[in-house]
Amino acid sequence: MTRPREVRAPGTGRRLSLRKRLVIGSAALIALAAVLIGVVSILALQGFLVNRLDTQLLSASGRSQGALDGRPGGNNQSSPTARDFVALPGQSEALLLG
Predict the structure, then answer these.
(1) Residue 37: φ, ψ to 5°
(2) What is the pTM assigned to this prediction?
(3) What pLDDT, in 10s, does the model give residues 64-93?
(4) 3-state secondary structure the chain
């Protein structure tokens, strides 16, 4: 019959008890799970926020170009000159708050 393998604490000659080995193993697994959950959450949130920012920028550039061209989406009815573009109203309030 073979003897069970002895696990010794690093740097000492003492043997780790089963309880200590289980606690250390459980803590390591919980830490690994927390790291994996964090990485997946960060990647998913980053993708969502980048897509949302892209949509907001496209919408803002469309409103800005519409105001310059005098289209219905813009705030100005007549086509302004390039010099008047600076005096056009800014973006909608919801863009800044949302």
Answers:
(1) -65, -40
(2) 0.51
(3) 776 666 655 555 455 555 555 555 565 565
(4) CCCCCCCECCCCCCECCHHHHHHHHHHHHHHHHHHHHHHHHHHHHHHHHHHHHHHHHHHHHHHHHHHHHCCCCCCCCCCCCCCHHHHCCCCCHHHHHC
Number of residues that make up the chain: 98
Q: Structural domain boundaries of the chain?
A: 18-97
**Residues 70/79, Cβ–Cβ less than 8 Å:** yes
What average pLDDT does range 20-47 have in this prediction? 97
Q: Which of 75, 47, 73, 49 is nearest to 59 (CA)?
A: 73
Write down the mean pLDDT value for the chain: 76
